[in-house]
Write a structure and sequence with these properties.
MetI-like fold; 0% strand; single chain; mainly alpha; 13 helices; 305 residues
Length: 305
């Protein structure tokens, strides 16, 4: 009897000491260096975008020609002033203010294009992976057709024909970068489709849409998170490339890609005009990828210990 009581007390003590699922999740989050770094950088850029009207020292569209090409404050120049900490561009516009407002455009385009492409690609991939057969053949044909078209060339052609604007850029990118969603979700759905719990749901008479929503999608979410972050970063870089070529966001909008394009003529004389928005783009894309990989690692079933 005494031994039994000791064992039961030991089991009760283990259960009392064992951390809750919420505590385990917090421990995994705060111990993942990539997730913390990516999340921290992204939070800073997101705060810059949301608070741009409040924290911008100047109007990003104001042109003061007698203050053009003022260097940033870390330069040793008589023109340096703390009124323009990051200097001004060739039209006298405050670079710090344009950087803040440019974060809004980059995040908006990245998120909106990712959302559009995610809906299209995930729908096609899940349907192809679950139903197989002719549905899979049709979706594979659509994916192959899309992969045969170079994204940048098609985007350039469409934007040049329709005309360039923020809305057009978002829709063009969203309708062109869904293929990775479709390929990954098709493969992930095929793996989950053959598992026992899906067969059990079918045996219980659950409808197809019920199985897709409650059995398939929760088990492919990790793959979806990684692809979504990759495509968001991809959309941001494509927008910057289109703006650099003059067919993306149009002046005088403070797009980071457009800021680089406007400064390319001065890259050998005033390199900071390209370095500042280029560094901002690099940090944003890095943060999105680190955050996506971190969320995937933390939420993966094999890492829940």
């Amino acid at each position: 009897m005494a031994v039994t009581e000791i064992k039961s007390d030991a089991v009760a003590l283990e259960k009392a000491i064992e951390p809750s699922p919420g505590a385990l999740l917090r421990r995994r989050v705060f111990s993942h260096m990539g997730l913390m770094i990516g999340g921290g950088i992204l939070l800073v850029i997101l705060a810059m975008a949301l608070l741009a009207p409040l924290i911008s020292p100047h109007d990003p569209y104001d042109q003061i020609l007698d203050r053009k090409l003022i260097p940033p404050v870390w330069f040793d120049s008589p023109k340096v002033t703390w009124a323009h900490p990051l200097g001004t561009d060739q039209l006298g516009r405050d670079y710090l203010s344009r950087l803040f407002w440019g974060a809004r455009i980059s995040l908006l385009i990245g998120f909106a294009a990712m959302l559009i492409s995610g809906v299209i690609g995930t729908t096609l991939g899940v349907l192809a992976g679950y139903f197989g057969g002719r549905v899979d053949m049709v979706v594979n044909f659509i994916i192959t057709t899309r992969l045969s078209m170079p994204v940048v060339l098609v985007a350039l052609a469409v934007v040049s024909l329709i005309g360039s604007s923020l809305t057009v850029v978002i829709w063009v990118l969203g309708l062109l970068i869904w293929d990775r969603f479709a390929v990954v979700m098709r493969s992930a759905t095929q793996q989950v489709r053959g598992l026992d719990f899906v067969a059990a749901a079918e045996a219980l008479g659950c409808s197809t849409w019920r199985i897709l929503a409650s059995e398939i999608m929760p088990n492919v979410t990790n793959h979806l998170i990684v692809v979504a972050t990759i495509e968001m970063a991809h959309a941001i870089l494509l927008e910057a490339a289109l703006s650099f070529l003059g067919l993306g966001v149009q002046p005088p909008e403070p797009s980071w890609g457009l800021m680089i394009a406007e400064a390319k003529g001065l890259m050998f004389f005033e390199a900071w005009l390209i370095t500042i928005p280029g560094t901002a783009l690099f940090l944003l894309v890095l943060a999105i990828n680190l955050l996506g990989d971190g969320v995937r690692d933390v939420t993966a079933p094999e890492n829940r210990n």
